[in-house]
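To close the section, here is one more complete example, presented without commentary so you can practise reading it yourself. The ligand is serine.
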Amino acid sequence: MKNVLIIGATGQIGSELTMKLRNEYPNGNIVAGYIPGAEPKGVLLESGPSEIVDITNPQQIAEAVDKYNIDTIYNLAALLSAVAEAKPQLAWKIGVGGLYNTLEVAREKNCAVFTPSSIGSFGKDTPHVKTPQDTIQRPATIYGVTKVTGEMLSDYYAKRFGVDTRSVRFPGLISYVAPPGGGTTDYAVDIYYSAVKGEKFKCPLKPGTLMDMMYMPDALRAAIEIMEADPTRLVHRNSFNIASMSFDPEVIFNKIKEYVPGFEMEYELDPLRQAIADSWPDSLDDSCARAEWDWKPEYDLDAMTVDMLTNLRKKFGIEKPADCKA
Ligand code: SER
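Output:
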């Protein structure tokens, strides 16, 4: 991996992955692909090249690949689960049409492709506890349908055309940098914002709603490590279960309260998000990723909570109150 195009570089994952790749591959072109209205700003704009790359426009993808001699494409364009339910046609156009465009360019120009899948690729018939790598995938959301289609299409391009496609099934991703926007797991980000701002958190999911979550530094490392993995060891390609922690709203609330004693939460349920969350696994079995490319998470809920609270306070210039431990 040397010259990399990130499609969706200003989104939740892209804005951090682009910077990490620029730091780790200083001799390559790490190109931030964005759509008008979501321009890169600040250090993301200043630290490397950027290009308008709308994933629904194959010519723009091809031109960026040619211009920078791209060898690897990170395809991060997607609508998250709750937003996708409101715009299913657009979710398909970006998630599947966009992936098809990317794979075709990759086939013609010999690029490797990373396209994240998700815990959302599973459905209510999937075993929910320690969900196996290879199991039933019958999601009921358009987000999940695009993710399962993406996994299969990516495997097809690998087998049929030799395109080096690889991916992981991300849990809910938690970060203090760019907000997610429109996902079912977003509450686990929003709750930290409320905690540092001294606000009561309104939780959209009921107690007992378990889902896999991951701190962004682990997710970014996974996205890079899978693309750098020794291909001869890979039995699977699209997509690997990866996991680091699983919790419900009560567990994360009580963890934050250990550090912010006055923090309060009440429930204000969102039926759409609750139905989506109920159809997703409680926890994933990531033993294949561990065996085939040595995947190992570094952050647990406690370490993530300290880091999130500390960095969000810095971001908003909020002093740590005397009674808070982080
Ligand atoms: N975080 C995503 C969502 O909630 C799941 O991959 O939509």
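Once you have examined the tokens, check your reading against these statements. The first helix runs from residue 14 to 24. Residues 18 and 135 are 32 Å apart (CA to CA).
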